[in-house]
Each structure stands twice: as C-alpha cells, then as structure tokens.
Design a protein that fits this description.
mainly alpha, 2 domains, 22 helices
C-alpha cells in the first residue's frame, strides 16, 4: 500500500503471508488445541483476521490517517534506515529518541518518522518492534496486520486453553471471552499499540500462571518473562503494575489450597494475606509512579475538557485529587466508568458501536450475577481460583486507571479493551455445585 496506491504486489505479498500464517496455524493447532476446543481454532483465527481487515480499512478509508497509519509509516522509515545503514538501524533500536539523533539517523532518502510518534518513547517503541515486520513484508500494511493478528490470536488461544482446564466456565463463555468479543477483536488485532501490548501481556500471563502453578520453568521461559515485562513497562507501565499486584493475589489464592485441611492455619494465612492486601493498596495509592500518572492525567484531562480541538466524545469523572484519600474516593466511580462506559446512547459512531452493545451485555450480566441464587458459591469460586482472583484485581486496577485518566471515549475503549475477557469471565463463572464439581480430565 505504498503511497496509498494498491498495486499488484500489494495483493501478492498479503496473500503469501496469509498462506504462511495458515500453514503455521495448522501446525500449531496440533500442539496447543485440545480436542474439546479445536473445532473453534480456525473459526476464531479467521474471525480475528476479518476484524484486523476492518481495523485497517477504518483507518485508511474512514479516518484517512490516525495512529495505526502513523505506526506503519514510522516502521517503514525504520525499514528504509535498515536497508541504507544496518548499523544506524541497530543504533536507533537501542537508543531513545532525541532531536540530535533524528538528524543522525534519518534523511530525505529514508524519510522522517511522524513527529508525535518520535517524541513519545512509548509510541516510538511500537514503531521499532513493527519495523521488523515492515522489513519482512516489504512495508506492506496488510501483511504486517496479518502477522500481528496471528500472534494476538495465539496468545488468546493459549490462555483460553489454560483456563479451560480449570473447569470454572462453560465452554461457550470461554470461547466468547477470549476469541469473539467484537470490540476486543477490533482494537487488539490490527497494527496498533493496543495490539502490541495485548500480545505481550497475554504471553506474560501464560508464563506467570505456569510459575504460580509450580510448573518446571525453563531458562527460555524466564527470558520471555523479562522481555514481555520490559516491553509492557515501556509501553503502558500501569498495566505491568496491575499484573504484578494481581499475580501476587493469585499466588495467595493458590497457596491457600495447601491449608484446606487445617482451618486454623487457613484462617491465619488469609488474615496475613488480608493485611498484605491492605498494605499493597496503601503502597499503590501512595507510590510515586501512581502519583505521577495521576498528576499528568489531571493536566491532560483539563486540556481535553477545555480544548475545542479535541473533537472526540468526552466524559468527566470529576476533579482529580492525587492524594491517597482523593484517589480512593474516586475509585468506585472510576471503576464503573472504566468497565461499563460508553453506554449504548454514547456509542453511536462506527468506532464505538461495538462497545455500546457490549455495555448493555455487561450491565445485564452484572445484574444477573448479583441477583443469582448461587452468588455465594460464585464469590467463593472467584476467591479460591488463582485465575479468577487475578482477573478480579487486574480488572479493578485497569478499570480504575483507564476510567479516571482517559477522558475521551475513544481512548477509554482502547486502553481498557485488554480487560474485557476477564470482566466477562468474572460475570459468567459457574455457581451451581453440580456444574462446578466436574470430574477433572487427567493430563497425559
């Protein structure tokens, strides 16, 4: 798609990579898909590929620009740099952006990256990562999207298989949560920062749950944890904070099982963990990282609200008081905003319509959850299950930060997209003992 013009080569390259991806998927399916779920493997892959195509079409034909196109252009400039000077390309990958390096690395031949992307280290890191795809695909946007979508799908599928073994949900709910949520597929399958973050978060979670479960961890798995953590920290640092906090609580839920036969020890462990949880909350709300995020968000929020140049739909949570008491006071409303908005009446645009429909579904599932006759059993299941405990803490933290700081619905739906599978699974957990206590399938 060079210069917005479709040539014959722009069709051949995506078709080639589509064939490669489907071949790899066929091999991968035999290794990671269980008999119970394998029927949805290629259906889910094609479903996500369709949304990745819609995502690209939306930015190229409807928006006629936007950040997805900017990431592609930035990656292509780095690709040009690679072919002109591999040494400069490597130097650029491992150095932060600066006005001095801009002139040293780029020229009229390589082109210059979009200014706002280059100035923002988080966005520029996405360009660096996707530049590898740009080199492999000869700067073809569609082929790059196909590759990114494939890795997004694999991360979703592997986490689906992990949770499926826990027997906490009906199969249909699991498949929908990880594969078929429309807005998640729209925002987290195309060429964007959200998709890159989504991929590395899910691969990190797969390894973290292996560690929590006490499985044997190889050195290459630890390397994966380090790489994923590094990229998440340098793209959306608050997500890594949420993962660490949620993983600690999940580990506590797993440890509790060792004290099932000793009520006194079980109570003592839970009490200690409860105190640890309170301490964690205090440290979280008083940490310099969170204070910095909220202080910057306060300035940005007022800019969004008062600046007429920002034409997207806006909302207000209220004045941000970055003191611990102020943040705690804002917690309930921010979480509600972060999880349920935009409502259907606020979503009458092409990019938000799926979110509005999902808001109706989430509100219905929430009412059904709290009005259920088995609510006590559901809460007990969440409290005892390591994945569901992780999901609860992860949803609350990301929902709080995204609801409080986004201000624009267009930003909100992208930042919080990553927690949608976890929200859905929390609200659809099995409650009836007759359904919960299914015989475990012995692993080979």
């Amino acid at each position: 798609m060079n210069d917005q013009r479709v040539d014959f080569i722009d069709i051949i390259i995506p078709l080639f990579y589509l064939g490669v991806i489907l071949s790899l998927a066929y091999i991968k399916k035999r290794r990671i898909a269980s008999q119970e779920n394998e029927g949805f493997f290629f259906i889910g892959l094609f479903y996500k590929l369709i949304f990745a195509f819609f995502f690209g079409t939306y930015y190229f034909l409807y928006v006629k620009g936007g950040d997805s196109v900017a990431y592609w252009q930035g990656a292509n400039v780095l690709s040009n740099l690679f072919f002109e000077s591999p040494i400069k390309y490597v130097d650029c990958l491992f150095s932060n952006s600066s006005p001095e390096l801009l002139g040293q690395h780029f020229n009229s031949v390589t082109g210059y990256p979009p200014g706002w992307l280059y100035r923002e280290n988080e966005a520029w890191l996405v360009c660096k990562l996707t530049s590898i795809l740009s080199i492999l695909t000869f700067k073809n946007y569609t082929a790059m999207s196909i590759i990114v979508c494939y890795f997004s799908f694999l991360g979703s599928w592997r986490l689906l298989e992990l949770v499926s073994k826990m027997k906490t949900h009906a199969r249909g709910n699991l498949i929908f949560a990880f594969i078929f949520i429309p807005s998640l597929c729209f925002w987290c399958t195309g060429l964007s920062k959200d998709t890159i973050v989504y991929i590395f978060v899910f691969y990190l979670l797969i390894r973290l749950f292996d560690i929590i479960a006490g499985k044997k961890i190889r050195f290459k798995h630890l390397i994966q944890v380090v790489i994923c953590s590094y990229i998440i920290y340098h793209t959306r640092s608050f997500i890594l904070i949420a993962i660490v906090a949620a993983a600690i609580m999940a580990y506590g839920a797993e440890l509790t099982k060792k004290f099932e036969s000793n009520p006194f020890a079980k109570f003592g462990f839970r009490f200690v963990y409860f105190l640890f949880g309170i301490l964690t909350v205090y440290v979280f709300f008083t940490s310099q990282t969170v204070t910095k995020i909220m202080t910057e968000a306060s300035v940005i929020q007022q800019d969004f609200i008062n600046n007429d140049l920002y034409t997207g739909q806006k909302y207000e949570v209220g004045v941000i008081d970055v003191s611990p008491f102020g943040l705690i006071s804002a917690f309930p409303s921010s979480v509600v905003f972060g999880i349920y908005r935009p409502f259907i009446t606020e979503s009458l645009s092409p990019s938000l319509i799926f979110n509005g429909l999902e808001s109706v579904l989430l509100l219905f599932l929430t009412l059904r959850f709290f009005l259920s006759f088995t609510i006590i059993e559901k809460i007990r299941k969440i409290r005892k299950n390591k994945f569901l405990m992780f999901a609860l803490v992860f949803v609350l933290i990301i929902g709080f930060i995204s609801g409080l700081t986004s201000v624009l619905f267009g930003v909100l739906v992208r930042v919080r997209a990553i927690i949608l599978p976890f929200i859905y699974l929390l609200l659809t957990v099995k409650g009836s003992k007759s359904l919960v206590e299914l015989p475990l399938v012995k692993e080979k």
